[in-house]
Amino acid sequence: MHFGLWAGLPGMLWQTTFFPILLGVGLAHALHGPRGFRALASVLGHRAAAPACLAAIAAAASLPGDDIAGGPRLLLQALFGALVAACVLREDNGLRPALALRPVARIGAVSYGVYLLHQLAIAAVAPIAARLGEPPPAARFALALALSWLLAEASFRTFERWFLRHKGAWIR
Q1: What is the DSSP string of 8-73?
Q2: CA–CA separation, 157 vs 153, rounded Å?
Protein backbone atom coordinates (compact mmCIF):
# COMPACT_ATOMS: atom_id res chain seq x y z
CA MET A 1 0.00 0.00 0.00
CA HIS A 2 1.34 3.44 -0.96
CA PHE A 3 0.35 6.64 0.82
CA GLY A 4 0.48 10.38 0.29
CA LEU A 5 2.46 11.88 -2.56
CA TRP A 6 3.73 8.45 -3.61
CA ALA A 7 0.27 7.06 -4.36
CA GLY A 8 0.03 8.62 -7.84
CA LEU A 9 3.45 7.51 -9.08
CA PRO A 10 3.67 5.11 -12.03
CA GLY A 11 4.12 1.45 -11.12
CA MET A 12 7.54 1.46 -12.78
CA LEU A 13 8.89 3.65 -9.98
CA TRP A 14 7.92 1.04 -7.40
CA GLN A 15 10.07 -1.45 -9.32
CA THR A 16 13.04 0.92 -9.45
CA THR A 17 15.60 1.13 -6.73
CA PHE A 18 17.67 4.20 -6.02
CA PHE A 19 20.08 2.42 -3.70
CA PRO A 20 22.84 2.08 -6.35
CA ILE A 21 22.75 5.82 -7.02
CA LEU A 22 22.84 6.64 -3.32
CA LEU A 23 25.61 4.09 -2.82
CA GLY A 24 27.64 5.65 -5.63
CA VAL A 25 27.23 9.14 -4.20
CA GLY A 26 28.15 7.89 -0.73
CA LEU A 27 31.23 6.10 -2.04
CA ALA A 28 32.33 9.20 -3.97
CA HIS A 29 32.06 11.32 -0.84
CA ALA A 30 33.78 8.73 1.36
CA LEU A 31 36.64 8.21 -1.10
CA HIS A 32 37.12 11.96 -1.54
CA GLY A 33 38.31 12.50 2.03
CA PRO A 34 41.39 10.89 3.60
CA ARG A 35 39.45 9.51 6.58
CA GLY A 36 36.81 7.79 4.42
CA PHE A 37 39.46 6.58 1.99
CA ARG A 38 41.45 4.98 4.83
CA ALA A 39 38.33 3.37 6.30
CA LEU A 40 37.30 1.82 2.98
CA ALA A 41 40.90 0.84 2.21
CA SER A 42 41.06 -1.10 5.47
CA VAL A 43 38.20 -3.30 4.21
CA LEU A 44 38.55 -3.27 0.40
CA GLY A 45 42.13 -2.11 -0.15
CA HIS A 46 43.75 -5.50 -0.64
CA ARG A 47 44.81 -6.40 -4.18
CA ALA A 48 42.55 -9.47 -4.07
CA ALA A 49 39.46 -7.51 -2.96
CA ALA A 50 38.25 -6.72 -6.50
CA PRO A 51 38.44 -10.34 -7.73
CA ALA A 52 36.81 -11.48 -4.47
CA CYS A 53 33.95 -9.00 -5.00
CA LEU A 54 33.53 -10.20 -8.58
CA ALA A 55 33.43 -13.83 -7.40
CA ALA A 56 30.84 -12.90 -4.75
CA ILE A 57 28.73 -11.19 -7.44
CA ALA A 58 28.91 -14.30 -9.63
CA ALA A 59 27.90 -16.49 -6.68
CA ALA A 60 25.03 -14.21 -5.64
CA ALA A 61 23.80 -13.93 -9.23
CA SER A 62 23.79 -17.73 -9.47
CA LEU A 63 21.37 -18.21 -6.59
CA PRO A 64 18.26 -20.08 -7.71
CA GLY A 65 15.05 -18.23 -8.47
CA ASP A 66 13.81 -15.77 -11.05
CA ASP A 67 12.81 -12.93 -8.72
CA ILE A 68 15.63 -10.93 -7.19
CA ALA A 69 13.35 -8.39 -5.49
CA GLY A 70 14.22 -7.34 -1.98
CA GLY A 71 17.26 -8.81 -0.26
CA PRO A 72 18.91 -10.50 -3.26
CA ARG A 73 18.80 -7.27 -5.29
CA LEU A 74 20.13 -5.25 -2.38
CA LEU A 75 22.94 -7.77 -1.89
CA LEU A 76 23.94 -7.62 -5.56
CA GLN A 77 23.88 -3.83 -5.55
CA ALA A 78 26.01 -3.67 -2.41
CA LEU A 79 28.48 -6.14 -3.93
CA PHE A 80 28.71 -4.08 -7.12
CA GLY A 81 29.36 -0.99 -4.98
CA ALA A 82 32.10 -2.87 -3.13
CA LEU A 83 33.58 -3.93 -6.49
CA VAL A 84 33.69 -0.33 -7.71
CA ALA A 85 35.30 0.79 -4.44
CA ALA A 86 37.88 -2.03 -4.56
CA CYS A 87 38.82 -1.05 -8.12
CA VAL A 88 39.06 2.66 -7.26
CA LEU A 89 41.05 2.23 -4.04
CA ARG A 90 44.13 0.89 -5.80
CA GLU A 91 45.13 0.98 -9.44
CA ASP A 92 46.96 -2.33 -9.17
CA ASN A 93 43.84 -4.21 -8.08
CA GLY A 94 43.55 -7.84 -9.13
CA LEU A 95 41.24 -7.00 -12.06
CA ARG A 96 43.63 -4.48 -13.61
CA PRO A 97 44.69 -6.71 -16.53
CA ALA A 98 41.06 -7.09 -17.64
CA LEU A 99 40.16 -3.47 -16.92
CA ALA A 100 43.16 -2.24 -18.92
CA LEU A 101 41.96 -3.91 -22.14
CA ARG A 102 41.22 -1.17 -24.69
CA PRO A 103 37.51 -1.98 -25.23
CA VAL A 104 36.87 -2.26 -21.49
CA ALA A 105 38.73 0.99 -20.77
CA ARG A 106 36.83 2.76 -23.56
CA ILE A 107 33.47 1.58 -22.21
CA GLY A 108 34.63 2.95 -18.85
CA ALA A 109 35.37 6.32 -20.45
CA VAL A 110 31.87 6.58 -21.92
CA SER A 111 30.08 4.65 -19.16
CA TYR A 112 27.94 7.58 -18.08
CA GLY A 113 26.41 7.66 -21.56
CA VAL A 114 25.87 3.90 -21.42
CA TYR A 115 24.12 4.38 -18.08
CA LEU A 116 21.90 7.14 -19.45
CA LEU A 117 21.11 5.60 -22.85
CA HIS A 118 20.92 1.84 -22.27
CA GLN A 119 17.13 1.82 -21.82
CA LEU A 120 16.75 3.55 -25.19
CA ALA A 121 18.98 0.90 -26.76
CA ILE A 122 17.02 -1.94 -25.14
CA ALA A 123 13.75 -0.47 -26.44
CA ALA A 124 15.25 -0.10 -29.93
CA VAL A 125 16.48 -3.70 -29.95
CA ALA A 126 13.03 -5.14 -29.09
CA PRO A 127 11.48 -4.68 -32.57
CA ILE A 128 14.70 -5.82 -34.23
CA ALA A 129 14.67 -8.96 -32.09
CA ALA A 130 11.02 -9.57 -32.98
CA ARG A 131 11.86 -9.36 -36.71
CA LEU A 132 14.73 -11.80 -36.21
CA GLY A 133 12.42 -14.35 -34.60
CA GLU A 134 13.29 -13.66 -30.95
CA PRO A 135 17.01 -14.48 -30.71
CA PRO A 136 18.37 -15.90 -27.44
CA PRO A 137 18.72 -13.48 -24.50
CA ALA A 138 22.52 -13.39 -24.90
CA ALA A 139 22.14 -12.15 -28.49
CA ARG A 140 19.62 -9.49 -27.42
CA PHE A 141 22.02 -8.42 -24.68
CA ALA A 142 24.90 -8.19 -27.18
CA LEU A 143 22.79 -6.09 -29.56
CA ALA A 144 21.65 -3.77 -26.76
CA LEU A 145 25.21 -3.46 -25.44
CA ALA A 146 26.57 -2.61 -28.89
CA LEU A 147 23.85 -0.02 -29.48
CA SER A 148 24.29 1.44 -25.97
CA TRP A 149 28.01 1.77 -26.60
CA LEU A 150 27.43 3.38 -30.00
CA LEU A 151 24.94 5.88 -28.54
CA ALA A 152 27.29 6.61 -25.63
CA GLU A 153 30.18 7.27 -28.04
CA ALA A 154 28.01 9.69 -30.01
CA SER A 155 26.88 11.43 -26.81
CA PHE A 156 30.44 11.65 -25.52
CA ARG A 157 31.86 13.08 -28.75
CA THR A 158 29.05 15.56 -29.40
CA PHE A 159 27.98 16.60 -25.92
CA GLU A 160 29.86 15.33 -22.86
CA ARG A 161 33.35 16.24 -24.06
CA TRP A 162 32.37 19.93 -24.14
CA PHE A 163 31.34 19.80 -20.47
CA LEU A 164 34.50 17.93 -19.51
CA ARG A 165 36.65 20.58 -21.21
CA HIS A 166 34.87 23.34 -19.30
CA LYS A 167 34.37 21.71 -15.89
CA GLY A 168 37.29 23.68 -14.42
CA ALA A 169 35.32 26.89 -14.94
CA TRP A 170 32.56 25.63 -12.62
CA ILE A 171 34.52 23.67 -10.03
CA ARG A 172 36.64 25.68 -7.66
Answers
A1: GS-HHHHH---HHHHHHHHHHHHHHSHHHHHHHHHHH-STTHHHHHHHHHHHHHTSS-S--TTHHH
A2: 6
- Interacting residues of 153 by C-beta distance below 8 A, sequence separation 6+: 110, 113
Category of 10 on φ-ψ map: left (φ > 0), alpha (ψ -120 to 50) or beta = beta
Express each pLDDT in 128-161 by its tens digit: 888 888 889 899 999 999 999 999 999 999 988 8
Q: What is the predicted pLDDT for the residue at 88?
A: 94
* Phi then psi dihedrals of residue 74, to 5 deg: -60, -40
pTM here is: 0.75
